[in-house]
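User: Show me a protein chain along with its predicted structure.
Assistant: Here is one chain, sequence first, then structure tokens.
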Amino acid sequence: QVQLVESGGGLVQAGGSLRLSCVASGVAFSDYDMGWYRQAPGKEREWVCAISESGDNPRYSDSVKGRFTISRDNTKNAVYLQMDNLKPEDTAVYLCNARLQFYTAWGQGTQVTVSS
């Protein structure tokens, strides 16, 4: 069973940057497709981006494309989300996600707040 722990959230002004980290334990990390989701108050959970097991083929939602970058380090069992040019509408709890076939695991999330 996968345990995921996110970190790196915080309060930042619009136009600023944050880097989120998610560390996995309990599994062969390199077998898992990894992703980030976010959920703002009163809204549904939204897919943000994902990256394949090998680190190839990063995919992004249109709302973050060109501003966010997902990466992973399989030697550290970690996936990262570099967020640049942040906007107030990026404010949300950001959750790490691990997928392998029909199995999905979630972290507890880290809060990102962008002030205008």
